[in-house]
Design goal:
The strands form five sheets. Strands 1, 2, 3, 4, 5, 6 and 17 form a seven-stranded mixed β-sheet that branches. A five-stranded parallel β-sheet has the order 8-15-9-10-11. The chain is globular, with a radius of gyration of 24 Å. 43% of the residues are buried. Strand 13 and strand 14 form a beta hairpin. It contains 14 helices and 22 strands. The chain is an alpha/beta fold and 476 residues long. It folds into three domains: 218 residues, FAD/NAD(P)-binding domain; 118 residues, FAD/NAD(P)-binding domain; 104 residues, Enolase-like, domain 1 (2-Layer Sandwich). It starts with a strand and ends in a 9-residue tail after the last helix.
């Protein structure tokens, strides 16, 4: 007999949803996990974080072989891109990840349902499968973890061919000759970097005065310089207004060419494109959930309203990850999911939303946590700042990774670390130790006095901590 009653139902099997399910199962709850995809992992594992990182890694190997191997005494001869194999490896990486999740879900005896879910009440959902069959599930607690979707501009509708989202940009059938990226955030820059390394002429068009706008000016200035050196063309302060198509005729075929239209300070701009990748952000995805039937309310930005413990306006209904206000990041969703599972089980869940690191996975990477220098100065807060360049780091010199620097921001009176920003190879890994020190309220001195192995890139983090008090060993 089909069992439709659970302690917890989770709608969405992305990082927030599956972590919530796994943690709840560990705590003894009977869990159901519902997702429209046949594979677990949500956007992140299927078409987002994981496939894009696989493409970034592979494209970095191609760029090394093409432009840097000779300087290391490595002769590679003629070089050719095998795009089908390049993309196949990405798919294999995704398959291994989602396959691992399926095994974990099975081992934890989590009931997995494939289909779209809709609330019938605050404790009942209806799941509709691809064959239109329906089944109802009931639980005392339901978690909304349906994630987000790419923002579509009204004058740049996605067509999947010429105007695409990141979903299509991880699987182009051929390398575009001219790729225009609308949006200078993490997604656009990462995917722009991939296709630029493979031979595309990439132009990034950003409405704001700078790319990755939440980062400090000195970080962005150096980052933009490095991207430009790699071949990306960056156009900031440019407002996109539309797209113009024209027909090109030749002896072999007829094809459409596109021109992205924009303006800067009232002057028109035009950017020729074979493909336009729109990467201007993501929106909370609650389409078709029937939230009104459960009594779940949205805020003015269409996020699900929640309290400090991620409870919605409906009794027994919770929401986590991208559907609630806050950073739309997989690791933030994971922490939300684990905490909610613990709260439901009567445990003391913990989340520090002030310490969610952010990373741009280009090469070099950019990473941040907490308060930036520019933001602190804008509030007239008294701070001390320590910087250390990777050019003075022995491991960076050996690894040909001297671009960038580490910056630590500390309170001028207490020396407590307020934030950090890193531009450099592996910045996403290096930021974690700063997060750890900040979690317990550590000072820049604590960071600087922590022993770091030599030679490692992480020594630059230690030196930046020392530099807050002008005590860096390997810098003037």
């Amino acid at each position: 007999m089909f069992d439709s009653t659970f302690d917890l139902i989770i709608l969405g099997a992305g990082p927030g949803g599956y972590v919530c399910a796994f943690r709840a199962a560990q705590l003894g709850l009977k869990v159901a996990l519902v997702d429209k995809r046949a594979t677990l992992g949500g956007t992140c594992l299927n078409v987002g974080c994981i496939p894009s990182k696989a493409l970034l890694h592979s494209s970095e190997q191609f760029a090394f072989a093409k432009s840097h191997a000779a300087a290391h005494g490595i002769k590679v001869g003629s070089l050719e891109l095998d795009l089908p194999t390049f993309l196949k490896r990405k798919d294999e990486v995704v398959a291994k990840n989602v396959g691992g999740l399926a095994l974990l879900a099975k081992a934890r005896k989590i009931a997995v349902f494939t289909g779209t879910a809709s609330f019938l009440s605050a404790n009942t959902v209806e799941v509709t499968a691809a064959d239109s069959s329906k089944q109802q599930l009931t639980a005392k607690n339901i978690v909304i973890a349906t994630g987000s979707a790419p923002v579509e501009l009204p004058f740049l509708k996605f067509d999947g061919t010429t105007v695409v989202s990141s979903d299509q940009a991880i699987a182009f059938p051929s390398v575009p000759k001219k790729l225009v990226v609308v949006g200078g955030g993490a997604i656009g820059l990462e995917l722009g970097s991939v296709w630029s390394r493979l031979g595309a002429e990439v132009t990034v068009v950003e409405f704001l005065p700078k790319i990755i706008a939440t980062y400090d000016d000195d970080i962005v200035r150096n980052f933009a310089r490095l991207l430009t050196k790699q071949g990306l063309k960056i156009e900031t302060g440019a407002k996109v207004t539309g797209l113009r198509y024209s027909k090109i005729e030749n002896r072999d075929s007829k094809m459409s060419a596109a021109t992205l239209l924009a303006e800067r300070e009232g002057k028109p701009l035009e950017f020729a494109a074979d493909v336009v990748l729109v990467a201007v952000g993501r929106r909370p995805f609650t389409d078709g959930l029937g939230l009104d039937k459960a009594g779940v309310q949205l805020d003015e930005k269409k996020h699900v309203k929640v309290d400090a413990h991620l409870k919605t306006t409906a009794p027994g209904v919770w929401a986590i990850g991208d559907v609630v206000a806050g950073p739309m990041l997989a690791h933030k969703a994971e922490e939300d999911g684990a905490a909610v599972a613990e709260w439901i089980a009567g445990k003391a869940g913990h989340i520090n939303w002030d310490l969610v690191p952010a990373i741009v996975y280009t090469d070099p990477e950019v990473a941040s946590v907490g308060l930036g220098e520019d933001a602190a100065k804008a509030t007239s807060r008294a701070i001390n700042v320590g910087k250390f360049n990777f050019a003075a780091n022995g491991r960076a010199l050996a690894a040909d990774a001297v671009d960038g620097f580490v910056k630590i921001i500390a309170d001028a009176k207490t020396d407590r670390i307020l934030g950090a920003q890193i531009l450099g190879h592996g910045a996403g890994e290096l930021i974690s130790e700063v997060v750890t020190h900040m979690e317990y309220g550590g000072s820049a001195e604590d960071l600087g006095r922590t022993i770091h192995a030599h030679p490692t890139m992480s020594e630059a983090v230690k030196e930046a901590g020392l530099a807050v008090s002008k005590s860096a060993i390997h810098a003037l």
